[in-house]
UniProtKB/TrEMBL annotation:
Pfam families hit by this protein: SusD-like_2 (PF12771)
Gene3D superfamilies to which the protein is assigned, alphabetical: 1.25.40.390
InterPro entries to which the protein is assigned, alphabetical: SusD-like_2, TPR-like_helical_dom_sf
Protein known as: SusD-like starch-binding protein associating with outer membrane
Species annotation: Arenibacter algicola
């Protein structure tokens, strides 16, 4: 009896397996025959990862550990304070900054670019959007180091290029502008259904906003070339002004981090090492009665805004009462605070600078300047009465005497909390003026007291890709933090 039952069960199992195999075979045939069936891995997840890495990069080692202090927004405590002293013993950091730049945004977006340009999976709309993200990823790396792997960068997996050549920053910038121009032309008339309907964490598949975003990034790059290639800068600005640009906070490119503890600035405000805001930043905001003071800076235990001077020696720092000074503002450093890579406020101020530099039109520059400030105040949800009051102050109107500096200082404020962009902005324009350190309480570091201009190529890179790195150094200048990158002519 047991044997008969066993045979019956065996027969049923074999029959079921046969039916399953036939079903699978039929399903596979359907896939082969159905032109609308998904036969390849969708690139949406890779695109989302690349975008997320891009925004996380605004809080990474290069931004938090270095650029934020080089640009005098804040001072970090403990061992994180070392870059604030303009030191040069950060070889492992330089290595991680470059590696993280490529292993995050670039690695993922290169896969998207390959996928969306390959036969069978080609999608010009997604490809155009991916180029915008790629440009932003590469722009940050080249702004930090100068010459970098670009034409062969990020190709280790797809093309087995393990020792990529270093391209000149000049050629990189020119190509990035070309790529953005091409993307804008594609996206202006693109079908949103061909983009990322369910996988766009920035604009929820609004291609009109993507056009504004790409064009505003192009304007940023164009103005960064102002002192290195004025002709290309001006012609590109003219192109930018003929296309839609970011104008209101709803056009801002931001993301809210939802994983883990949320925004990384939250863990730095509440954890270790702590961050205290810079005297330079607080003095600027307090001195002009800027309502963004309470946005960017928290009150100390006494209800005051107390900052710390950047670059203190160890002895002076020990006497600074660091623990009791003002923390980063809650709007910047709460778990749900927004991370930004580009804003409408920055775009208006870039236009103001361009009007002054290329049109010699201080009247138009003032209109654009005021618009940039107003949009920034709205971005941070400053009250209407406070906005009205500040816009009537002298700080919100170009004086006619120091217009370039006024625009530069407001740009420095407008890019917060993208502190890396603030550092790049100061390097390009010289504003706000970062005093050379001459006081005995301040550390001159490896730069004789001058704000660092770049990151060094690490010893690992020098050892593993020696000939290509040495060629870059021979073009660019000594591998030191006071060697300016190509566009830094100020």
């Amino acid at each position: 009896m047991q044997t008969i039952h066993h045979k019956i069960r065996k027969t049923v199992v074999v029959a079921a397996l046969g039916m399953l195999l036939l079903s699978c075979e039929g399903h596979l045939e359907d896939l082969y025959e159905n032109p609308n069936a998904v036969t390849t891995i969708d690139d949406s997840a890779l695109f989302t990862k690349a975008v997320r890495s891009l925004f996380q990069g605004t809080t990474d080692n290069g931004s938090a550990h270095f650029a934020g202090m080089h640009a005098h927004y804040y001072v970090a405590g403990s061992t994180w304070r070392a870059p604030d002293q303009y030191g040069d013993g950060h070889d492992q950091d330089y290595n991680s900054i470059m590696n993280d730049g490529y292993s995050g945004t670039i690695r993922h977006i290169e896969e998207v670019l390959e996928h969306t340009s390959s036969p069978g999976t080609q999608n010009d709309v997604r490809n155009a959007i991916a180029h915008v993200i790629s440009v932003l990823g590469y722009a940050k790396i080249t702004d930090g180091f100068g010459d970098i792997p670009y034409s062969e960068g990020g190709k280790g997996k797809s093309q087995d290029i393990l020792l990529p050549k270093y391209d000149t920053q000049e050629s990189i910038y020119k190509d990035m502008i070309i790529r953005l121009t091409s993307s804008i032309n594609v996206l202006k008339s693109a079908d949103p259904a061909m983009a990322y309907p369910n996988s766009d964490p920035i604009y929820d598949n609004d291609l009109g906003k993507w056009v504004r975003f790409a064009n505003s990034v192009r304007l940023r790059l164009a103005m960064r070339l102002r002192y290195a290639d004025a002709g290309l800068s001006q012609s590109t600005v003219t192109q930018c002004l003929s296309e839609p640009l970011m104008e209101t906070p709803e056009h801002d490119a931001y993301m809210i981090e939802t994983e883990g503890t949320g925004n990384a600035w939250f863990t730095r405000r509440t954890g270790f090492p702590s961050i205290k805001m810079s005297t330079l930043l607080i003095n600027q905001l307090e001195g002009t009665n800027d309502p963004r003071l309470s946005v960017f800076v928290s009150q100390d235990a006494n209800g005051q805004y107390s900052g710390i001077v950047n670059g203190l020696t160890d002895q002076a720092f020990g006497n600074s009462n660091f623990a009791n000074l003002s923390d980063m503002g809650l709007a910047l450093s709460s778990p749900e605070s927004k991370l930004y890579v580009m804003t409408a406020a920055e775009t208006w101020l870039l236009r103001a600078e361009a009007a002054l530099a290329y049109d010699n039109d201080p009247v138009q520059a003032n209109i654009l300047f005021r618009k940039g400030i107003e949009v920034s105040l709205n971005q941070w949800e400053v009250g209407e009465a406070e906005i009205t009051g500040f816009m009537t102050s002298s700080a919100a109107t170009l004086s006619g005497v120091n217009n370039e500096e006024q625009i530069g200082v407001q740009m420095w404020l407008a890019v917060i909390p993208n502190f890396f962009e603030g550092w790049s902005h100061i390097r390009r324009t010289g504003y706000p003026v970062i005093p050379v350190r001459t006081s005995e309480d301040l550390s001159a570091g490896a730069t004789n007291g001058i704000m660092p201009n770049r990151f060094n190529y690490s010893s690992f890179e020098l050892g593993s890709n020696s000939s290509n790195v040495q060629e870059a150094i021979s073009r660019q200048g000594a591998n030191k933090i006071d060697t300016p990158v190509w566009w830094d002519k100020n």
